[in-house]
Design goal:
Length: 362
């Protein structure tokens, strides 16, 4: 993991002597801690990693997590009591004047503890450098995301087998979670979205007791977490019989996605990919709107930095992993979204999700 640490330092715009990543209590655990340590198992509440410019890192681990912390390439120091943690921080930060912190992942109370352990230290927010580093994946990360994508692709292709009219949204959501975990996911990467009929016009609908009726759209947006890495996929189906309006909406979204995918390659700006896809949706005059960005970065977290959206500058680089998820939503009627995960290449992109996108009637 030394390469990752060195890359973070190379992306800094401020000089710092060391960087600290410190976890609070779940869910305030900084995923960048796992990025630099590579620990696949363990919760690591309250633990810290101190990173050095030569790529080395020290981990201050609670006794509870010690067995998960050994075996990596970090030097591990273990504390049993809080006072010992403060003492370890004090010792390791001796001589550090300018300390980089991840403002996006550090709680105020942990920052106060660091300052108590090392009075007079200058804390500098270097979260931009961390985001910039994490957004470009190394090959081992690409492989883990590929595996996470395989799980959701298989589950998405299973949907026509279990979905039926009269099923409730939360029942379908439960099937998705269960099937992902049966295939090796440690958990869903976020609460699955399962939305039927007019609920599908709400892009982030929370599943409820709404039942699937003939003529409804059925939209599913879900992801798997596999060895800490996330996937994310959306597929939309129709129950019973497809209307002309539904077919037009579906085909527009499919074409918008194909247009976006064809635009992606290293060197292109994400906002231009968004514009290319969005223009197809805009041609569906009166047929609905797309109130969200075309896609987002994906990795240890489901929104891993970077968006392809109007006005957002994101020059694409090789090995960035992004979602491409155009949608069209007509309030009171319904919505369609189709989402895949791609890895940016020099001359295009590789699509990591493989589930069918043919308009499927349940
Ligand atoms: Mn997404």
């Amino acid at each position: 993991m030394k390469d990752r640490v060195k890359r973070i330092f190379s992306n800094l715009t401020d000089n710092v002597d060391a960087i600290i990543l410190m976890n609070g209590e779940e869910p305030n655990v900084d995923l960048s801690f796992f990025y630099v340590t590579g620990y696949e198992s363990g919760l690591f509440e309250g633990c810290a990693a101190i990173l050095w410019p030569d790529g080395k890192s020290d981990v201050i681990s609670s006794a509870l997590e010690e067995s998960c912390a050994v075996g990596g390439d970090c030097q591990v120091m273990v504390y049993a009591k809080l006072a010992q943690r403060v003492q370890l921080l004090k010792e390791r930060l001796r001589g550090v004047r300018r300390l980089g912190i991840n403002g996006a992942g550090l709680s105020v109370s942990n920052l106060e503890e660091i300052k108590r352990a090392s009075p007079g230290i200058d804390a500098i927010d270097i979260s931009v450098a961390i985001e910039k580093t994490r957004i470009v994946k190394d090959d081992s990360e690409v492989e883990l995301i590929r595996d996470a994508c395989k799980i959701v692709s298989e589950v998405a292709d299973d949907i026509p087998d279990f979905l039926e009219v009269e099923m409730k949204e939360y029942e379908a959501a439960a099937e998705l979670s269960y099937k992902m975990q049966k295939k090796g996911a440690s958990s869903p990467s976020f609460e699955p979205i399962s939305s039927f009929g007019k609920n599908s016009a709400d892009p982030h609908h929370s599943p409820n007791a709404t039942v699937l009726r003939k003529g409804d759209f059925a939209l599913f947006d879900f992801g798997a977490k596999y060895r800490r890495y996330c996937s994310d996929i959306t597929r939309t189906f129709v129950a019973g019989k497809v209307s002309k309006r539904q077919r037009e909406m579906y085909e527009a979204v499919l074409e918008a996605q194909a247009t976006g995918l064809a635009t992606i390659r290293a060197g292109v700006n994400g906002k231009d990919v968004d514009a290319a896809a969005r223009s197809v949706i805009d041609e569906l005059k009166g047929g609905g709107t797309m109130p969200h960005s075309l896609g987002h970065g994906l990795g240890l977290s489901i929104h891993d930095g970077g968006r392809m959206a109007p006005g957002v500058d994101l020059p694409l680089k090789k090995n960035m992993i992004l979602t491409v998820e155009p949608g069209v939503y007509a309030p009171g009627y319904g919505g369609v979204r189709i989402e895949d995960v791609v890895c940016v290449k020099e001359n295009g992109c590789e699509i990591l999700t493989s589930a069918s996108k043919n308009l499927t009637v349940i």
